[in-house]
Amino acid sequence: VQLVESGGGLVQPGGSLRLSCTASGFTFSAYGVGWFRQAPGKEREFVSCIRRLGITRYAEYAEAVKGRFTISRDNAKNTLYLQMNSLKPEDTAVYYCAARASGSSMRSAEYEYWGQGTQVTVSS
Asked: What pLDDT shows up at residue 52?
């Protein structure tokens, strides 16, 4: 089982990034998936999650990112995405994708599989 994030980097405030998470070793379409992030000195926090079928209107978002971030998935490509717009310095963190057999959840402890993370830095 493997989840590999990509797309992180350094961006100026107000800029955009698109994160990707490619899954292998399990039936991706049967799992709920989500994004979490961890800033230095802080606990890991929920960002967004989406259900197995990927119907975006049922996606969940943290209040801090609502209206700026969009989660989506392509089950044919075994890939999860996070489009991040209007980025702020407080979005700086390592971003992790995670997968859960019982569907999506906002609780990190309920996810079985995790990626290694990708760094996002928002700074001028």
From this structure: 87
What is the rounded CA–CA span in Å between residue 8 and residue 111?
22
Distance CA 3, CA 82 (A): 14
pLDDT tier at 90, thresholds 50, 70, 90: very high
DSSP sequence for the chain: -EEEEE--EEE-TT--EEEEEEEESS-GGGSEEEEEEE-TTS--EEEEEE-TT--GGG-EE-TTTTTTEEEEEETTTTEEEEEE-S--GGG-EEEEEEEETT---S-GGG-SEE---EEEEE--
Q: List the one residue out of 71, 69, 70 whose CA is nearest residue 87.
A: 69
End-to-end CA distance of the chain: 37
